[in-house]
Specification:
The structure is a single chain. The protein contains 16 helices and 14 strands. It is α/β, with parallel strands linked by helices. It binds adenosine monophosphate and zinc ion.
Length: 481
């Protein structure tokens, strides 16, 4: 079995991943803030974390994967109030949507998914310890702050200059309305304010709510102990979130928090940052509405190395929202599916093959190289490249059935490691004229950028049991039955 190696943000080195204890690799991923749909950038991070876990398991380790839900913060409170819902009802709604998207994208569920609201006592206890040890202080408004100057190694993850921190000259830290001794100090507990409404808890410092950074430190400690194997998130979390987590946890326990820090680079859309005002903010629902599948999106999201930015090309050269990136993924998946079928035919008979089968398979034939690429700093583009090279080298028609079966299992294992599901074989049949007419009208509406009509017609066609799939040349109609 290959050893897995990964770049570590703290040491800035590629290091082997070895569990601290036994054969179970125990890691924490910062989860979503559940106040709206997760966007495809968030999913770049969550899908890569899933490929990371699958690779560890296929390399022979067991895993214990904890991912939290941020269900109380400024945004969840603000938007639940705007929606006229209780915080719980509001965050439960978005949590369900998040789980559904994760399922569609074929992400394995974490072993534990704790929420901030479910762990208030643990957070209060941690703040008490920090106050007792002289790392935190209460301010006049009932908030409690972490004193950055009490933790000399503050800044070690992001390599921030301490002097800059004290003066705030880096511009990296923005002061908020709470009262604190130093601009770098951050809130562990936020004293209740009017705009919080009924969203507050009792504490030794008065009513209020925990700070976002503290939530993760407390949940890491609860489920993974003082020290664990790896901590992960998108690159925007390095500072201040993860820096603050390290300060809180290590000041509290005196132990090193995590052995390894894994950060994924951001997804860009058409070369820019995703934002609602730029109209380039996509969710999985948007992608599916445009006629693409979650599997095609997953393919795009892992098509670049996690340490490189990934530019999701949504618009073609003419500015049409035709999703060239997803078109490319569709073609690639169809190529793999065609090859898979020819191996299957050559094997004669193939068994059911699950993720568990992939984990226990030791002979991966020509597809071992693809697994090696994943084990070597999670090189997903290289793994795809090696799958295509193996496909070129193998002539299924020349193989004996047992050889074809061996390669078929190897291919499925490489696909399972990346969580890629192949498109099902489609039954192409003639659509009735009224459906074909609607599809044609939808195509025209799309050309005219009349998205509302295009979406409505697509939904009507879908309801009648037909799916419109956009292709390079135009579109095709596929029966859902
Ligand atoms: P949030 O729901 O904002 O707390 O973010 C959830 C996860 O998505 C975090 O790990 C973020 O770092 C990550 N993330 C946010 N934006 C992007 C992006 N554009 N590309 C990749 N990851 C992102
Ligand atoms: Zn976190």
């Amino acid at each position: 079995m290959p050893e897995m190696r990964l770049f570590d943000t703290l040491s800035r080195e590629i290091r082997e991943l070895k569990p601290r204890e036994g054969d179970t690799y125990r890691f924490y991923c910062c989860g979503p803030t559940v106040y709206g749909p997760a966007h495809i950038g968030n999913f770049r991070t969550f899908v890569l974390q899933d490929v990371f876990r699958r690779t560890l398991e296929i390399c022979g380790l067991k895993t214990f994967h904890v991912r939290n839900l941020t269900d109380v913060d400024d945004k969840t409170i603000r938007d639940s109030q705007a929606a006229g819902k209780t915080l719980t009802d509001f965050t439960e709604y978005w949590t369900k949507k998040f789980h559904k998207d994760c399922d569609s994208l074929n992400n394995l569920p974490p072993h534990k998914e704790p929420s901030a609201v479910g762990h208030i006592p643990q957070q209060v206890a941690m703040i008490e310890e920090l106050v007792e040890k002289g790392h935190a202080y209460r301010s006049d408004d009932g908030s409690v702050y972490f004193s950055v100057s009490s933790f000399p190694t503050y800044g070690k993850l992001s390599r921030l200059d301490q002097r800059e921190l004290k003066t705030g000259a880096s511009g990296a830290i923005t002061d908020d309305e709470y009262e604190k001794d130093s601009v770098a100090d951050f809130a562990l507990w936020k004293g209740r304010r009017e705009e919080d409404g009924e969203n507050y808890w009792e504490s030794p410092w008065g009513q209020g709510r925990p700070g976002w950074h503290l939530e993760c430190s407390a949940m890491c400690r609860e489920y993974l102990g003082e020290s664990f194997d790896l901590h992960s998130g998108g690159v925007d979390l390095v500072f201040p979130h993860h820096e603050n987590e390290i300060a809180q946890s290590e000041a509290c326990t005196g132990a090193s928090m995590a052995d390894h820090w894994f950060h994924t680079t951001h997804l860009l859309v058409d070369g820019g940052k995703m934002s609602k005002s730029a109209k380039n903010f996509y969710t999985l629902a948007d992608i599916e509405k445009a006629g693409f599948t979650a599997s095609e999106l997953r393919y795009v999201l892992i098509s670049a190395h996690y340490r490189q930015p990934l530019n999701f090309v949504a618009r073609d050269a003419e500015g049409n929202e035709s999703f060239p990136a997803l078109q490319g993924a569709r073609q690639a998946l169809q190529r793999i599916a065609k090859f898979e079928k020819s191996l299957k035919d050559a094997a004669g008979e193939t068994p059911e093959f699950s993720y568990e089968d992939a984990i226990s398979l030791t002979d991966r034939g020509s597809f071992e190289d693809a697994i090696q690429a994943l084990a070597d700093d999670l090189n997903t583009p290289e793994a795809f490249g090696r799958i295509f090279s193996a496909m070129k080298a193998i002539k299924p028609g020349d193989l004996k059935p047992e050889e074809a079966l061996r390669e078929w299992k190897g291919l499925h294992t490489a696909l399972e490691a990346m969580g890629i599901e192949l498109p099902a074989e489609e039954e192409k049949s003639e659509a009735p004229p009224e459906i074909a007419e609607k599809a044609e009208q939808r195509w025209k509406a799309k050309q005219d950028k009349d998205w509302a009509t295009a979406d409505r017609l697509r939904d009507e066609v879908l309801e009648a049991g037909w799916e419109i799939k956009d292709t390079k040349e135009g579109y095709e109609l596929c029966s859902k039955n």
